[in-house]
Specification:
single chain, about 270 residues, mainly alpha, Herpes Virus-1, 2 domains, three-stranded antiparallel beta sheet, 11 helices, GID complex catalytic subunit 2, metal-binding, CRA_dom, ligase, ubiquitin protein ligase activity
Length: about 270
């Protein structure tokens, strides 16, 4: 699948023949279509991408996507700036951008106002308006939205895993050398002994830190919700219950009495 979604169709075909692994035909067709459209975008031909976005309008709107507007925006900018044809730009705006005036009123107003500065746009208040999106940015945006509608993440899992690993390795390598000097061993299997700061694009799981123990919850020490709605780590709930002969205890953050049996596990 990695080779297919990366556009390496010949390599993917050879790999599937030699390994017996297969990719559903409809997915092969979809990714072939995606890369065909991406090649047109790179060649500054937005027509196939606009046709696809128009066909998928309802799905894109449901996701809150601005892809279709961005495509029309760039086409308008191309006519106005690259081709220096204000008449063509105006006619295009009337046919296509007018449909977005309610949702993107500010953006469409700025784009139309840029007509007043044709030839001197770089020195105008609208210089930044016509610099976004670029064809490269639109290429990435289109691929991301296309994959999302197929149920795939914007980036391939292999790429994400390798990227996260390359960020984590220096920290883990340093930790290993420190532990060797101290004669210590890494004893935890479900969590890392150090914090790895990953960018937001590489964060997929919610992290909950117990407000009582200040420890991050894990599979063996999951988050538990009390009847009052406050959430603590499982070990903290058990510990609070053991302090009372009746196993009843007050929530640390409100006066509600409860016990361990009333707590429910939370899945983020």
């Amino acid at each position: 699948m990695y080779l297919t979604r990366s556009g390496e169709f010949d390599v993917a075909s050879t790999f599937m023949k030699e390994t017996g692994v297969s990719v559903p035909e409809h997915l092969l067709g979809e990714f072939c279509k995606m890369y065909d459209i991406l090649q047109h975008i790179q060649a500054r031909d937005l027509a196939p991408a606009i046709e696809w976005a128009t066909l998928k309008r309802s799905d894109l709107l449901a996701r809150g996507s601005n892809l279709e507007f961005s495509l029309h925006r760039l086409q308008y900018i191309d006519y106005l700036i690259e081709q220096n044809d204000s008449v063509k730009a105006i006619n295009y705006a009337r046919r296509h951008l007018s449909a977005f005036k309610d949702r993107y009123f500010k953006e469409t107003s700025q784009l139309m106002s840029a007509l007043l500065y044709v030839g001197t746009i770089d020195k105008s208040p609208y210089a930044s308006v016509v610099k976004f999106p670029t064809y490269e940015q639109l290429n990435m945006m289109f691929a991301s939205e296309f994959c999302s509608l197929l149920g795939f993440p914007p980036q391939s899992p292999l790429y994400l895993a390798v990227t996260a690993g390359s960020i984590a390795i220096p920290t883990l390598s340093k930790m290993e050398s420190v532990m060797k000097r101290r004669g210590a061993e890494w004893t935890t299997t479900q969590e890392l002994p150090v914090t790895i700061d990953l960018p937001e694009i590489l964060q997929f799981h919610s992290i909950f830190v117990c407000p009582v123990s200040k420890e991050q919850t894990t599979e063996t020490n999951p988050p538990m919700m009390l009847p009052c709605g406050h959430i603590l780590a499982n070990d903290s709930v058990r510990s609070l219950g053991k302090e009372s002969p009746t196993h009843m205890f007050k929530c640390p953050y409100c006066p509600v009495d409860t016990n361990y049996s009333q707590a429910k596990r939370v899945y983020f």
